[in-house]
Protein 1
Amino acid sequence: MAYLKFPKPEPRFKLKNHTRFIASLLVFLLMVTAVVVALGKRGETGDSEAASVVVTPFVPPPTPELTPPPIEIPAGKTMEKVKVVIDAGHGGDDPGTTSPYEDEFYEKEVTLDIALKVRDLLTEAGIDVVVTRDTDTRLANNQREDLMLRAQLANENSATLFVSIHVNAYDLKFKGARQVNGMEIYYLNKQPIYDGFNSEQFAGIMGKAIQTQNGIYNRGIIESDLSVLRNTKMPAVLVETAYITNQEDHDRLKSDEFRTNTAIGITEGIKQALDILEVFEYEGDLYVFKETGS
Ligand SMILES: [Zn+2]
């Protein structure tokens, strides 16, 4: 058989090769050790030989001391997050003004729709917003308390600005009542919480911003001691969007286009006011400086 032609390898030969292999391996290991030791020595301060062959696990650098924010808060001011409170007038058992032209068309429905549109637009713009209601409800069963709770909500949220949305009506007992139309912005100046900015300026800005967007006749700004204006601590305005007692205004109030444009106008007015307040971004949130009032 063919394999018998090859002689069986001699044990001596095999042993000799094996020894050579062990010797080579030892030399190789010695060289590797030498390299590892040399590399280890290069990076250490020479206190421990053992440390040079131990692979040191990665240790993250210690967390630096908390540094103060890179924002200097001016003396006499506080830094607060921007939050706008939008108040949809009336709700639930309180319908607000009612249409003389159509059954079951109420102020409360228009105010809620516009308020929710403003909420969505502000949210899209990255501005924090709170609405006093987002359903057909009122905050309390009597009007006095209901209005107090709306102002209280704004104060508790330390709101930057407050906007209350309403629909106007003219007393139909008066001659020519149905001819009265347009928008009015109500305000009441209070103890200012911002340097050089008050409710009156806010009202002026708001009226122009809304008129620019929806084209309604702007009847101007009116100082008035209304509950939500008196009881809120921040610049506040009450927008009487249009007259439900005027046929053309009534049709506007019914249309989604007018409501959307009014909401865009209110949002623009808020943005312009925030610009004047020099609102700034810090770590992804918007902030404003307020007077401490002391
Ligand atoms: Zn109202």
Note: The longest strand covers residues 161-168.
Protein 2
Amino acid sequence: MSVTDISHRKKFPAQGNIYLPHIVVIDKIIEETPSVRTFHFNFNFKDGKLRKEFTFESGQFAELSVFGVGEATFCISSSPTRNDHLECAINRVGLVTNALHRLGVGAEIGFRGPYGNTFPLELMQGKNLVFVGGGIGLAPLRSIIWNVLDNRDKYGKIDIIYGARSPADLCFKYDLDSWNRDKTVNTIITVDKGDKNWTGKEGFVPAVLEQAAPSAKNAVAVVCGPPIMIRLTFPVLEKLGFTPEQMITTLEKRMKCGVGKCGRCNIGNLFVCRDGPVFTYAQIRSFISDEY
Ligand code: FES
């Protein structure tokens, strides 16, 4: 079986009835960007049994609901290797996310999931890993990055290339600091345009990736970020020698029901919720430039 043959992976069933939200309680809120558009929520199940028994894998997503307002889809940004609580990063962009941002610690919200397939971690063991992220696209990546770092001896060289539009738009700065300090990881942080205090790298993520030029030999690249960044990153990886089967991404766009019923998330002949959200570039390259 090839490392990049991710279609075989089992899909985790939701916990219990797939349509039934469970109550979770928000126990921490971190403001990720000063523009107040991205908050990072930590939460846990109200039900102690579920708190103990709930499982998920890196790459999966969930539906969060604000009662009386509605629900929306978010990737789970925490790692299953650190399962004392769950985390989701939420950009304030619509009705549900605005309502979520108005909540405080102690508020109860609905959670259903986990849904979708997972990053093929078992098949990535022994490989060199290249993580390429942009903006809030680091949310799903940080789940797999922490998962890999918590099992460091199972993987080869690790490169993390992450960027945002400005220093203020960099998310998860505490993680970036931690990865920067980790001598077993090559972390490169970049911004499109720095401010007067920025002493780090400037440049768009695909260009910085090209400069860094990680080897494609025995490697897998995992890419997540804004659609334009994803579209421009794949050709760079190809130029570096990565095959479409060695490139993995996770798509989050346009999901609604999360369980293959509403038809909102189709891309080409695939449903993001049912067939993904994790795909190889080989699976999506014929339609990603038109539809994503
Ligand atoms: S979100 Fe409804 S079918 Fe995918």
Note: The CA atoms of residues 64 and 215 lie 39 Å apart.
